[in-house]
Amino acid sequence: MPLVLSTQVALPANYRPQDMLALHARDALQASEKVEGLRVSKGLTWQGRPALLQLELAEGAALAVASLAVDGPADTGDDQTALDAMVARMLGLGEGADQLALQHGKHPVLGPLLLSQMGLRVPASSSPFEALVWAITGQQISVAAAIALRRRLIAATAVQHSSGMLCHPDASALAALTPEQLRAAGFSVSKIATLERVFAAVLDGSLPLDAWGTQPLQAQDAQAIEDALLAIKGIGPWTVHYALLRGFGWLDGSLHGDVAVRNALARLLEVPSVSQREAEQWLGAFAPWRALVAAHLWASLSAKSY
Fold first, then answer.
1. Residue 119 DSSP label
2. Which is nearest to 246 in space by CA: 136, 105, 100?
3. What gap in Å lies between CA 196 and CA 30, rounded to an integer?
4. Which residues of the chain have pLDDT under 70?
5. Which position among 52, 201, 205, 287 has the lowest Cβ density within 10 Å, counted as fewest Cβ atoms?
6. Would strands 39-46 and 49-57 be described as parallel, antiparallel, or unpaired?
7. pLDDT tens-place string over residues 136-169
8. Rounded-to-integer distance, Cα 94 and Cα 152, Å
């Protein structure tokens, strides 16, 4: 009998639905995610099985209601706790959004931006693994190119829920793809090698991404994950800090290597350009919310969420 779970979460009074909705509306073809009004339907892999998550925000954004329909029998694990944790991460409900504004709202440069974007939160992917795959996919290419690559990767594995929605694959499904299939999807030789290392590490248990994502991260946990990821050839600081942000809701990674962050910062500072070193130093003043500041800079560009 299929597994069906549900949960609901009260949202902060200043919650901004557009941040979460924009993340899942990136791909205009909507094959594995669909945004309709205040509802997101998303195909994902749950405990190795195709699943459909439906996440809907009530009018006024005071409440979020989620349901998860999983093809196949119920697991013996604590699926309800896992669902609650996933939904909270996907909604970006970790601490930090309001604290940043309270502490730095009077900053002469950043303050006006924070106040104009009050309530901005960083929604996460459905799992740390999905976030890491997206980060590797997006290395050194445009957002549009990364979206197309991701779409073809999901289509290549052809993991499909009974509703018809394609599902983001897990490590087992992706590891079953041949290098030729990955090349046909548009991945470079170097990205294929990096992805294969990640799949192998997840499957042999040396990179337990989703286990790490069951609890809110502390600084020492984030450092341990960073060290483990940097040990994988092909993964650098930008990939790590982006994956920490989108996979775990960790708000203190430094995204100074992100081109969009530096462009937004240059515009904010009214200078022609900002180097990685300059961006790193500037963001450093806002620890432990450096990645949240980066998200505010992204939002200031009025581009689709990356």
1. T
2. 136
3. 26
4. 1, 61, 74-77, 303-306
5. 205
6. antiparallel
7. 999 989 999 999 999 999 999 999 999 999 999 9
8. 31
